[in-house]
Design brief:
The protein has two domains: 2-224, Spore Coat Polysaccharide Biosynthesis Protein SpsA, Chain A, CATH 3.90.550; 228-297. A seven-stranded mixed sheet has the order 3-2-1-4-6-5-7, sandwiched between helices. It has helices at residues 15-29, 46-54, 71-81, 101-109, 126-143, 159-164, 175-181, 205-224, 228-257, 265-297, and strands at 2-8, 33-40, 60-65, 86-89, 114-118, 155-158, 186-190. With 299 residues, it is an alpha/beta fold.
Length: 299
């Protein structure tokens, strides 16, 4: 069975069109399916219209969140209610094309565990495409993955991927990287991307800014979650070494040139750097202890 999970927020004009396009494409594939729409706190008439559209289709349903929790929570909710061995994530804005689903399924049948969409010809404004290109290049560089469009919401994966990689917050953005980190086989396929015709994009400056914050957070979690001392130790030793060099320099000035140091602000800077460096190193040791105890308890 294939489970298609579609989160939406105020997409009333797009939902009926998307449903009919999906049905047409899935009927061609002749496979068992379910379509799960997740209403992420919409304030328009989208849910009511969708209920009328799918009322005769027993394989489609709508889940409703009490408020706008965000796409990550909506995807997580949809997954917990799904039954399929193959999970499809796609957006409700009609920019993803259901006709591309067979491409994803073909790659899954080739042995891949997760297939990410690649919007090679993206029909969005420069305010979206330019930051996205920077973000994708940073992702590829930091995590050493050969993907061109990590931000694409059109993804297909085996169920076991999401059973091993828990969705939370906005980590759905880097789901392929998290899957690869767990040993799953990932790839990408080119998909058609259409310009938005109805509704308003949810993408804005704050989402872009938070995306870069998330990138830093995910880099730390993936690279250092089981070896925190490698991170804190490197930072702490660097700060400690800088502070020590300042103090050695001042010591030489005091011993050989009789310079008075109590009026030198750089003295306090050196002392501060040494203290902060030691504290950061100790934080790394505490992190290692927490990881060790957690591993020991989970045995």
């Amino acid at each position: 069975m294939i489970s298609i999970i579609i989160p939406f927020h105020n997409e009333e004009q797009n939902l009926p069109i998307l449903f009919h396009k999906l049905k047409d494409e899935i009927n061609k594939l002749k496979i068992e399916y379910e379509i799960i729409f997740v209403d992420d706190g919409s304030t328009d008439l989208g849910k009511a219209q969708l209920e009328k559209t799918i009322e005769k289709d027993s394989k489609s349903k709508i889940l409703v969140l009490r408020k706008n929790y965000g796409k990550g929570k909506a995807l997580e909710t949809g997954f917990f209610e799904s039954k399929g061995e193959i999970i499809v994530f796609m957006d409700a804005d009609l920019q993803d094309d259901p006709q591309d689903i067979p491409k994803f399924i073909h790659k899954i049948n080739e042995g891949y565990d997760l297939v990410n969409g690649y919007r090679k010809k993206r029909n969005d404004g420069v305010d979206k495409t330019f930051p996205s290109k920077i973000y994708n290049k940073l992702i590829a560089r930091l995590f050493n993955v050969d993907l061109h469009d990590i931000n694409c919401g059109f993804k297909v994966m085996r169920r076991e991927v999401l059973e091993n990689v828990r969705l939370y917050g906005d980590n759905y953005r880097i789901l392929p990287i998290l899957a690869k980190n767990e040993g799953f086989k990932i790839t990408e396929v080119e998909v058609d991307h259409h310009a938005r015709q109805y509704g308003v994009s949810k993408y804005g400056f704050w989402r872009m800014l938070f995306g870069f914050f998330d990138l830093i957070s995910y880099f730390f979690l993936i690279k250092y979650v089981e070896k925190p001392l490698h991170f804190f130790g490197t930072v702490g030793v660097s700060i400690f070494a800088l502070g020590s060099l300042i103090l050695i320099y001042l010591g030489i000035e005091r011993i050989y040139f009789q310079e008075l140091l109590y009026r030198r602000p750089i003295l306090f800077l050196g002392l501060l750097l040494v203290i902060v460096g030691v504290q950061i190193i100790v934080t790394g040791f505490i992190g290692e202890l927490i990881v060790y105890l957690n591993k020991r308890q989970s045995r």
